[in-house]
């Protein structure tokens, strides 16, 4: 038996539109152990949310379609099971905090009803027990249980996010997917929500996939990090390996775009250019048009994963047969 709770192999997802085929996710590989937190980092359009929706089997079809790969959860391939079995897993063993708390809640149901609904669907208990459990979950995320009958519009953005967290953890899932859970919140509330998620993760021993574009959030809550670009994982490893021994030019560019209080630099070094159009990805390495280190070979050859210093890098600079181009 593998000790991996989640094991994604060669996952590919695309959207077929009138403008062409959008290759949103291209042969990605990820794994996660019980209680571990993985940060999935990248610019808007990198394929982070599509990866999460693929794991939940919530890709809108049409136009979206999972075209290849496997998603093994507790040793079972989620792509091969029927929809009824997937419904038993979704919200129960795997929960997701969606990107915007303002639109994630049903405006015509009280917050308590929305929490107890999840509990009633997945647990064999009566209505009163579900109400009691929902009030417990509200208390757990710092909201008085007496607000069970209040509606979403009566809560602030930070409080709504706490309600969404309560819903996602109500059935004590094995895996929590958090899709940019702090994006719509101000900095002070962001810190409170992250502390809350960290504490609840420890309490329930829940594994977590944290999707974000904020490297500071990753440093605060994650054990491992995967850097995503153009639908691919281009650098992946333990947090200390990737942060302290950064290898890929794109990852170096991300760190160069962040102010550093310990540095004497007067200007930041942003990554030039913009993300590639997913309907027309560049040949070879998808990052080469924006890369300061690019050589002719980068526009022709697709890089493979190379393991260095404990983490994987998808860059030709580190492949033995291509390395001489940079020497």
Descriptive report:
This protein has 327 residues and is α/β, with parallel strands linked by helices. 30% of the residues lie in helices and 25% in strands. The chain has ten helices and twelve strands. The strands form two sheets. Strands 6-7-8-3-9-10-12-11 form an eight-stranded mixed beta sheet, sandwiched between helices. A four-stranded antiparallel beta sheet has the order 2-1-4-5, covered by helices on one side. The longest helix is centred in the middle third of the chain and has 18 residues.
What is the count of β-strands?
A: 12
Distance between the termini: 44 Å
What class would the helix/strand composition place it in?
alpha/beta
Described by the principal axes of the CA atoms, the overall outline is globular
Radius of gyration using CA atoms only: 21 Å
Number of helices: 10
Q: Secondary-structure element order, as H and E? A: EEEHEEHEHHHHEHEHEEHHEE
Classify the helix fraction into a percent range. Answer: 25-40%
Mean pLDDT: 90
Largest sheet: 8 strands, mixed
The low-confidence parts are none
Strand order across the biggest sheet? 6-7-8-3-9-10-12-11
How much of the sequence is in beta strands?
15-25%
